[in-house]
Amino acid sequence: MKKEIIRKTIVLLLVFIAALIFYFISAQNTMEKEETIYASMTEPHLPVVYAAMDGRKVNPMHGYVQDLGNAVARSSITLLPENRELEIIIENYGNTVTEIQYEIRNLSMDRLVENTRLESWEQREDGIYAALPIQNLITKEEPYLLTLILDTGESKINYYTRILWSDYTYGADFIQLAEEFSRKSLNNQTARDLVSYLETDPSEDNSSLGMTTIRTSFDHLTWYGLKAEMVGDPSVTLKELDGTMGQVQVCYQIHLTDSANQVRTLDVKDYYTMRWNEQRIYMMNYSRQADEVFSEIQPEISGKRLMLGITNDQMVSSLKSPDHTYIAFETNRELWRYDQEEGELLRIFSFAGVGDEDIRSSYDSHDIKILSVRDNGDVYFLVYGYMNRGTAEGQMGVTLYHYIQNRDTVQENIFIPVEESFESLQWELNQLAYLNENEMLYLLLNQSICGIDLSSNELVVVARGLTLGEYAVSSNQQRIAWKEETNPGQNDRIHVMDLNTAQKDEIQADQGDYIQVLGFVGSDLIYGLGHQTDQWISNGRVRELPMYALYIIGTDMEVESQYQEEGIYISDVNVQDGRIHLNRMVKVSDQSYVFQNEDTIVCNEDISIDPLEGIGWYVSQDMGKRYFVQLDQTVDQPLQTREPSSYSYRDNVMAAAATVSREDRGNVIFCAYAQGRFLGSFTEFKEAVDAAYDDMGLVTDENQHILWDRINRRNAASSRNEGGSAMERHLSGFSENTLYEDGLMLIDARGCDLNQVLYFIDKGYPVIAYTENGAVRITGYDTYNITITDSSSGESYKMGLGDATTYFQSLGNDFICGKMIR
């Protein structure tokens, strides 16, 4: 009897345990189903706002459901009429707008000028028409940030543009010329009116319709004589207006008919930089970028080539799975995957649908980065920038997607909102966006290194508030190094991290020494050591941090090479193509050095990483350079093309990226722009000017104030007394780039050419120049001479412009410049 009872008890216990197991498994599955929601990507739903300028609908503004402050202010500038009443057009796409409000702030965002709610607007067939009655609280010739806020009842949506109330009325002329130029360039006959604007150079590369410049041939400008037709109306944006300088962007689609009568669709973007004078408008720079829409045609195979068509190096990339079965490739912001065994072509991701003409879907302030292609067909990739549609529509950020082969679905793993422009975000992610084999993703965001564990979606900050020039990433993005900000009394140190293993090492300088991160050659770290007492101080500012030794450290953290010589100091280290270039100096006094010679270290480390690996091109007879994806075997049958069966996203996948205020960074950052595009951030003013100079660009601070503009300078000018007085108040204590409380920015412009710093005199501020006899002031210039004022005697004299250029260059072009940025 007892045995029977025991037996029944055991059976019941086993049944109970089995039930528990079944329950937990079912519950887990239910939880997973609740966390993962399967759907198609939602269509865009946010309105688009335009400004009306001289009867034209320009400056399309896309909506943000996050507050970006002045981060995207550089996207457009809108000119106000004399009465300051700005007309806007809202294409609401079926949305009901319940409230329209606008705010006006200074560019630094520390002063609210106006906050107004509109009492009425007009709903017409093609959208909402409204007028913003901007009050007389703004100053002429000073740009402000306008934030337009639409309330749809479901959400509040922000739209951003700079506004300018100006006596310079050239903006409409610039816009008209840009649109006419774009239209006329499509036809051989009408394009003859454009010849006077070109600067054709026989040495210019005319092989690719993907990129055209002001120096290319007339035949290249006019699409090699092929039939080109604009589809619809172009989208026109005034990107810059600074005095007599204007920059305009014109975006449109064309149908291009090749010699075989096949019609191809191309996305085209024209950039114009112009200068106005009384006689005519001068074209200072022009470029045209054209990218074929791959999804608009039947995929074309030629032997082992999957043709992508007309594009350029920056718009294509590819990555193979380790066993070469799968090839993922990006072209024109679309992600595809080709299965070499099955001959199947999968369109994994694109915001734009096939044949989609919605300006919201085709908005191009985003890009795709392929992270990993697995042997099982899975693909990990990033979509970053403005989210045109989907669950994060209207946000700026980074989304990690995972195409899962066995589910045939694209899954959104995590979304990280950021508060910076697409161009700035792209500049950072081009430096670091790495996924290791343990599914840890590392990103450079907001000058911080973030790590994301894909198994838990947990975000951790590896290093916060990095200073430009004090960190480096290896070319394969598998190692990073950064200098730690130390407190007084602490030794200088750098951290080195292997992103594959998460191994973190430290290199510490001796007491009294400083340490500098100099870069990587391949995966090997380069750093330098110097004595604190050896700083090169010239005219009250640190000119250089000479190093007595340079080290190359391998992945095992062992020293592979050392460069050190008694009495020789090292500076200006630059890594290029496996070679380390440096300058050698000798010390002539406690804080002074002279250049001796250059030297080059040739490294054995193989650093060749081809950004176009797997991508090729050839020059066709009728269309010039055509790009293709290189296949491993010949394809002799039509490709099967399809899309994933579903998209999925998880609840609560949003993670906050590390945010670092500009004040926390502790130094002035200079941003270079040209042709309406961001070129990079720099801590040295000279480097920013050099980046913008050749393309007729400009330099701003992080708050979008223009600090330097190559074009907007008169042929003759003199500084004003108030400009000199403002600088005089701060010169005695000046040691580095500084923005003072009165709004004056003092800039260390050492290294800039004389011609470059004359810009500041045109704006009313003298240039401080250091000579062998002390400081002088350059207070004026004309076509032939500059005017120099002696600081001690107050006497002025003239020097020929050519002679002065040579003279100051021999002294190291040691200049201090200033500008009031309010």
UniProtKB/TrEMBL annotation:
<protein>
    <submittedName>
        <fullName>Uncharacterized protein</fullName>
    </submittedName>
</protein>
